[in-house]
Amino acid sequence: MSGAHLLVLEGDGIGPEIVAGTRTVLDTCDATFGLGLSFETAEIGFAAHRSVGTTIPDPVIAAARGADGVILGPVSHNEYPPVAEGGLNPSGVLRKALDLYANIRPALTPEGLGGSARAVDLVTVRENTEGFYADRNMFEGPGEFRPDPDLALAIRKISRRACRRIAEAAFALAEARPARHVTAVHKANVLRISDGLFLEECRAVAEAHPAIAYDEVLIDAMAAHLVRDAGRYDVIVTTNMYGDILSDLAAELSGSLGLAGSLNAGEEHAMAQAQHGSAPDIAGQGRANPVSLIASAAMLLDWLAQRGTLPAGAEAAAAIRAGIVAAIAEPGTRTPDLGGTGTTTALAQAVAGYVADTA
Ligand code: ATP
Ligand code: MG
Predict the structure, then answer these.
(1) How many Å lie between the centroid of ligand 1 and the Cα of residue 277?
(2) pTM for the model
(3) Quick check: ipTM above 0.90?
(4) Residue 65 dihedral angles phi and psi, to the nearest 5°
(5) Is 187 an annotated catalytic residue?
(6) Which pick of 29, 90, 120, 254 has the fewest CB atoms within 10 Å?
(7) Would you say the C-alpha torsion 153, 238, 198, 127 has a positive or negative sign?
């Protein structure tokens, strides 16, 4: 019998709440579609630091390598103790250890949400292994440092290989979407060498995909274009930090950051992770929107289906997406970020209920 073994990591802040909601939906999928899912859980973040002195223990990294997929709750890494005291960013460490070079971040307005949400249906494809992120660009030393007390420097690493593979991931994704349009977002007018290299590779990949429309937009102009008319974009490919920021903007335009799922994908591994952080301001109150992580889990099921690991995963993922739309269409089920008074648990149960009904 086919099946998949998933490693589930709760993380910090609202992590335990939204992970529980996601498990409810996955358990329902398993029962409804006979997926043969098995789960393993492990501590990371503050909980792991309390018990074993590090926020990302080595056995967890090994378990992630051994699993078919990972579900990662959000982490409060900016609150952790220094790295020397075991406070590593679990998300960064896992992305690196599993070579999860593509961070796929859809922003899709749920039909029937209404309110101030704009009609958005785009995917940000964000380079995930280098750029301006100091924990990821250890290029002969730390990526960020202070040569003297009054000076701080950060190194932004851009390699041809990383640009090539993120561009290829973006065009492969665009092939499967009706609009078939890729926009490369950059700042090559000032970062001529580094963003210039990124554009070189995007153009080379665009040439190999003549059926896909390709254009280039500056990051600052892109922020304005998104607010004005996000509906005209389809797939956005960009470097790490621009992608981090733009995808939050796109998610919020689509209704809420709490709706935004994401998948960190490489050749061999994939990890579902909500786009947002650990939202410490609302942790423990049962008001977090679990849809972001539920949608991320659906992306993981799709990825497992595409690889042939879990053929029925695609059907389950489609049922989750339909369940999310149906649940959110009911104002009484909406969480406060969507203008409602619903709870994390009730929204997750509503999605699970719709999934069960598809059988
Ligand atoms: P971190 O330090 O972990 O990144 P943060 O303080 O930056 O945390 P985010 O998690 O990035 O916070 O969230 C930014 C804002 O969006 C917060 O006000 C948070 O409450 C809200 N938010 C984020 N995720 C959700 C969610 N799933 N449901 C509801 N609100 C959310
Ligand atoms: Mg944040």
Answers:
(1) 5
(2) 0.95
(3) yes
(4) -65, -35
(5) yes
(6) 120
(7) positive
